[in-house]
Specification:
The chain is an alpha/beta fold. The protein has three domains: 102 residues, MurE/MurF, N-terminal domain (Udp-n-acetylmuramoylalanyl-d-glutamate--2,6- Diaminopimelate Ligase, Chain: A, domain 1); 228 residues, UDP-N-acetylmuramoyl-L-alanine:D-glutamate ligase, CATH 3.40.1190; 158 residues, Protein-Tyrosine Phosphatase, Chain A. It contains 15 helices and 24 strands. Helix 4 crosses helix 10.
Length: 501
Amino acid sequence: MKLEELFKEISYEIVNGGDDKGVSAMQTEVKELVNDSRKLQEGCLFLCIRGSNFDGHTKAFEAFARKAAAIVVEEEVEIPKNTQTVVIRVKDTRYAMAFIAAAFYSHPAKELTTIGITGTKGKTTTTYLVKNMLENAGIQTGLIGTIEMIIGEEHFPASNTTPESLSLQRDFRRMVDAGMKAVVMEVSSQALMMHRTQGFLFDMGIFTNIEPDHIGPNEHKDFAEYMHCKGLLFQQCKHGIVNADDEHLPQILEGHTCDLTTFGLGDGADLKAEALAYMHKPGELGVYFDTKGIVNMHAEIAMPGKFSVYNALCAIAVAHRMGCRVEEMEEALKKVRVRGRIEMVKVSDEYTLMIDYAHNAMALHSLLTTLRYYRPNRLICLFGCGGNRSRERRFEMGEVSGKLADLTIITSDNPRFEDPMEIIRDIETGIQKTDGHYVEIPDRKEAIRYAMAQGERGDIIILAGKGHEDYQEIRGVKYPMDERVLIHEILQENQQAQQKQ
């Protein structure tokens, strides 16, 4: 593809290559797009991206030496002048990369209904709810998110919640080629800040909720910036579907350019849930509710709590806009399951066991508070904290579990390069601010075995923190560890032990 086709929607300056009018330079053919110097190849276009730990501009000469057709920069780079290698300066290479990638893959988003979901909590679950609803109505739908990317029957592990624009546009093209008609994806605040979703307009942008999170040296400087970045989605979509009950909605919608549909539990929402009732069956929790407004239906979802109602309302609003029938929505809600998100694992008719990704104090508080509504005999919470992450998170999670759980089992998560016992001691410090009962079992499998052995009639046991992860990271190595597998092994070992008696 010629450079002139890739740069149609971008302001640029040619600083090297071609004749003095820059005409022949933009006729240069590009074979591939590259932003990783390890993947440089002859005839590629190399984009110099500045990151927090590395600056691609330092690899410009290497790109020249390896015969890149063109190099895109935002500042001056040292390569020989008056050579055939075209150097193009833009204001922001990340922003330009998104438009270049969209053009290179022939604007695949125009061939899909694109649905982007942002918010602090609920993004992952809501993507699966939307996908299930649309596919139940016969609309082939791809998915991109924290856990995985799905194209038809193929599943690919995710590296980022929202991929870089080069990967994203390539994935869109693969989806189109595979016959997908829609794509639903998580859109992180980091992705919006770094322009990963520029180069196209979402058909629908969804806002679930927002609370202070992802604030720190390598993320957002403060809550105001975090909200601003989340709100950028509503300047990049045709239609917004937003949570009317969130107190920060005005800040999220500041400067929005889309028309809106609202959902919530309060009066005035375009789609409202009412008559909520909690469902508690052996080994299973859920919620019933009715909707009024743009959709009138009775809903049942096998996920607990009020936040599950909000997630479902998002999906119902999307499905309604896509023309799905009420009975298709009702059926999809009943059967949806999301790996590692309040995921029920049936092991007993006496107690309920679940796996969830709650890995900070805010998420754990929300989860345990929700589970209290089901009036368990006891609420048992097992968790650890990741190493080389904020120590404050450990104290906070310990205090939350100490206050809300009847028994806390402190164990290991991903210790990374820290001593697991140091992390456990930090969590213990948080719990000791409360009157909560706790035990320490560093080995996660043994901790799960203990939790299951403690299970009594009416108990709810939550394994928090790992969620969809199938590994444990220790000193730079990711060792296989899937909690579902551990549970299965424990059940088998218990059965074998009983047979020997």
